[in-house]
Here is the input.
Amino acid sequence: MTEFQSSATSGSAVDMLGIVKDFDTFRAVDDVTLKIQPNEFFTLLGPSGCGKTTLLRLMAGFETPTTGSILLGTKDISRLPPNHRPINTVFQSYALFPHMTVAENIGFGLKMLGRSRSEIKVTVDEMLRLVRLEGRGDSLVTRLSGGQQQRVALARGLAPRPQILLLDEPLSALDLKLRQSMQIELKRLQAETGITFVFVTHDQEEALTMSDRIAVMNAGKVLQVGSSRDIYEHPADRFVAGFIGETNFLQGDLEAVDGMSGTVRLKNGVRVSAGLSEEAPRHGAITIVIRPEHIEITDVGAAGSIAATVATVVYFGTDTHIHTHLADGTPVIIRQQNRRDGSRAPQTNALIGLVLPLGASQVLRD
Amino acid sequence: MATDVDIAEAQLSHKRWLTAPALLCITLFGMVPLITVMSYSLMQPSEYGGVVPKFSPDAYISLLFQRDVFDDALTFSPDYLIIFARTVAFGAATTLLCLLIGFPTAYFMATRSPDTRNRWVLLITIPFWSNLLVRTIAIMFIIRDEGLINMIMLSLDLINAPVGIIFTDFAIVLGLIYSFLPFMILPIYAALEKVDFRLAEAGFDLYASRFQVLWRIIIPLAMPGIITGCVLVFIPTFGAYVTPLLLGGGRHMMIGDLIALQFGSSRNWPLGSAFATVLMGFVLLALYIQARKAMGVSHG
Ligand SMILES: Nc1ncnc2c1ncn2[C@@H]1O[C@H](COP(=O)(O)OP(=O)(O)OP(=O)(O)O)[C@@H](O)[C@H]1O
Ligand SMILES: [Mg+2]
Here is the structure.
């Protein structure tokens, strides 16, 4: 393991440089460049089929890139087989060895690395403690519950102290309660072990709450890499804006541009000012995006407001979602936090005015 | 109140009746021949075949001893023991070789795409479409001195004179392998087909080499199929009769031939029955040991 750990200090933990992966004629990963930092909780987020698993399998060594290279520290590992990479995987299906006990599963990697019996036992006990399965070492894995199997899979991946732990939707088979407690558990394990986690999910909420940084993928490409806040507040394009959280899209024309902001004339004649991202178009017909919680409600007809009709009002405990549509039929969702005074959410079919506050709306690259 | 119990009991006795045909079959086709053979082995031979219903342990004694024609003294004679040992050795060799050929074959089949697998299974069963005797004679044509193998080797100048393959121990084992290989392949294939090959990836990911993945993950998971295959090959070799007779040229008998001889030209039914009984005991013992092992495997 010493040979593995030596390179961990220099720069990124993993560099993926211009990775392309073709399956016959199908391009599953399309020119992906990623730099994953040491000790980072890094998440790959994207819809089903966008190439997340393929990217993970490229890192693990189950696939080799068609072009591009993968660096671990400074070493090119693109062509190394999985058993020569200090990278372990927690599989979505867990893939625990059914003919072995919990302890044998956890100790398997160390055994294959040729560690002594006593060292394996010490590490396995430590891992059992870490994943809170003390005393279950001799159980058969087939006798464990889903959540327990999940934790054995984690312990098995962590036991050889890999430089990188890859997790492919490890929580998707668990029910909501268990999933939430495992999310916290995973964060704790990552912090305690200091191992770089590359986590795959298609659940945006899970990605936002757990990650240091997120890479949003679609159709084999990485569209944006950034912190949860970056991605939520400054989505790079319409896809990211739509995929992460709820978003409203409004059509309009860009009338004037002033550096990083511009004046947009919406279809119904109302003018709003919107931020312009770097790659956003600078003229013509555009779409602005605005988050539901950023829209304010006022009386219909108030200056600078857009008239909208309330379709449904859904109470969510902490907040209320108000589904409306504009005169031309464009749907707009507004999210209001519920106050203690039980203040007035608009009634269904009411006519209200919507205000887009300065700086809340943005024009994005399509 | 009691009605529930009555109904349950009525159903139970009803169910007992349902097992009657099965019990009858087992008794008629299993137990009766078995008991007949066992009791024949303890009787005296009749001169023209059959038995004289008088008790005699002679058949068992003559398994190991020869009775002197003049003074009735018993001397140890290992002839039958040698045939028995040869049978076990041929059976073991056949089983081992079938395993060595069968496992990779089954592995190959199980790793094909699901729709081509059935085609492979069909191919494996093709030999069963014809009669064993015909197939054995076909082998004779291939391995005899003027046969296909020698012809090819001669024409390629690999050899100067035909190599004697037929009528050797090798020919017998070859014939046995050919006859029983599918019984090894199919159970192993069935076991491997159920193995989740993602587990092999997991092993590979955890620093296991290809060999270690095979040895520590694939083989243990296929073990029930391997054991079944070994039992299905090893035990029927004891009954092999046509193969050693034709391919061994009758020079090296196996116990199947010996038993056939006793019921045929030797007209010593008690001795034949005694062989059969001892053989059965041996097979039961082997099965018992295998079952114990299989239990050990499935309990981890
Ligand atoms: N071995 C393969 N051969 C051919 N196509 C493949 C192969 N593996 C993946 N693909 C294709 O590549 C695309 C990306 O697959 P991948 O499994 O990486 O998606 P994913 O993002 O993990 O999706 P999900 O969220 O559903 O797991 C899919 O369209 C898939 O059909
Ligand atoms: Mg996937």
